[in-house]
Amino acid sequence: MVRRRLLHVAVLTPTGQWLVQDQPDGPVLVLPGPADVVALAATIQHRTRSTRSESR
Prior knowledge:
Blueprint: E1 9-12, E2 18-21, E3 29-31, H1 34-54
């Protein structure tokens, strides 16, 4: 997801939680598991695609 630029950074902690940041200057989110990371990325992708189609 970082490679596809949906997320700026995603780091797995030793406890199994994920530290995620969607923009370089955005807040760091603590997510409990990988499904939550995927859900966040899907939300960001949906928001990005919705915004792009409106500007066309």
